[in-house]
Specification:
Layout lengths: L3 H11 L3 E5 L5 E4 L2 E4 L7 H12 L1 H5 L6 E7 L2 E10 L2 E8 L14 H4 L7 E7 L5 H15 L3 E6 L12 E6 L7 H8 L6 E4 L5 H12 L3 E6 L4 H10 L3 H14 E11 L5 E9 L2 H9 L5 H6 L9 H10 L5 H7 L3 H7 L2
Parallel strand pairs: 7-11, 7-12, 8-9, 8-10, 10-11
Antiparallel strand pairs: 1-2, 1-6, 2-3, 4-5, 5-6, 12-13
Helix pairs in contact: 6-7, 7-9, 9-10, 12-13, 12-14, 13-14
Length: 348
């Protein structure tokens, strides 16, 4: 049986993003979005137990079998995020390899206007997309850009801490939910007493967190957060709909005034292997503020589509651009499009 260190080293050498350990199957890793066997050896329950102990030591044996374990650490020369859980009574592991170096913001393939988002000093900037779409990487690159360009205090709330920043011009406090604070909401409320300029919220998943994030933005802080939504308009609706109906009008008003931008991401297959970033960028204009305020979010996509002069773009416009640049095929663009007819017509 391969050790965790050997698995991680092999995954790193092959450019894999994740490792999956499941009883009754060979260990697998994710290459360009697809799962592949790492070897032919099928893992037994004993193997899985031993690998879990390598990952979290005695904590694995002390933890109630019905409770999942989240952690992060260094294995095989690479920092990793680990989630241990059980399925049908057997231990399983999902392990994410984290980049050792935070990439430069300019090199991620974001629209040029997205780089300028780090110049804001207050408001909310959201990065959204499905799991594995590179949200954490984009946020880390944005914060590191701030770290190297202005003198500020950055506080992050993460579950768990992924990228480790090396303070340059900024003072940086990285707080891990479950170890340094009880929850995102409690950590966020506490952060307002910690004299921050910039706050990163790993996931805006509940009403308390979203409400406090809006308050932080209104009081002059720059707040970065993530949501699992597929478009800017969906992100606005998700934030509003966690509140009771009687509060939604007020929340729309507040959000319309403090939301600065929404970056929505997908990773799509390149023509010749690998993946690239497809991006929707909503820069919140006066027209979009009015749509948020009035609850007319279905019209946001049209407003984003007409904001090209400012640097905004819809996901479909981003996919068309990738086709025209020769990076992806027209069929790939249509497969990942929101409006397949638009891409079919314009991706030439």
């Amino acid at each position: 049986m391969m050790t965790v260190d050997e698995m991680v080293a092999m995954a790193k050498a092959n450019g894999a993003s994740d490792i999956h350990i499941i009883c009754g199957l060979p260990p697998k890793f994710r290459l360009d979005g697809q799962l592949e066997d790492m070897c032919e050896e099928v893992l037994t329950e004993e193997d899985c137990n031993a690998l879990c102990r390598q990952l979290c030591g005695e904590q694995f044996d002390r933890t109630d079998p019905s409770v999942e374990i989240d952690s992060a650490g260094l294995w095989g020369g690479n920092r990793c995020r680990v989630h241990i859980f059980r399925q049908q009574g057997m231990p399983s592991v999902a392990l994410r390899l984290l980049r050792e170096q935070i990439p430069k913001l300019e090199g991620l393939g974001l629209p040029p206007a997205a780089v300028d988002l780090t110049r804001h000093h207050k408001g909310i900037i959201l990065v959204t997309g499905e799991t594995g779409s590179g949200k954490s990487t984009t946020l880390a690159a944005m914060l590191d850009h701030i770290n190297h360009t202005r003198k500020s205090h950055i506080v992050t709330l993460e579950d768990p801490v992924e990228y480790l920043y090396k303070p340059d011009l900024c003072a940086i406090n990285q707080r891990e939910v479950g170890r340094d604070t009880k929850s995102f909401a409690e950590g966020l409320r506490a952060s307002l007493r910690e004299d921050p300029n910039v706050i990163l919220i790993g996931e805006m998943r509940d009403r308390d967190t979203i409400e406090t994030a809006i308050t932080a933005a209104e009081t002059g802080h720059l707040v970065f957060g993530t949501l699992h939504t597929g478009s800017a308009s969906d992100a606005v609706d998700r934030m509003v709909q966690v509140f009771p109906e009687g509060m939604q009008t007020q929340i729309r008003l507040q959000l319309s005034m403090c939301l600065q931008a929404v970056v929505t991401q997908q990773l799509v297959p390149l023509k010749n292997g690998g993946r690239t970033l497809a991006v929707e960028l909503m820069l919140v204009t006066d027209a979009i503020r009015n749509l948020i305020r009035s609850g007319n979010t279905p019209q946001i996509a049209n407003a984003v589509a007409t904001s090209a002069a400012l640097g905004g773009q819809t996901m479909d416009q981003g996919l068309v651009r990738l086709v025209r640049e020769g990076k992806i095929t027209r069929d790939t663009a249509m497969r990942f499009a929101h409006d397949e007819a638009f891409v079919r017509k314009n991706a030439m």
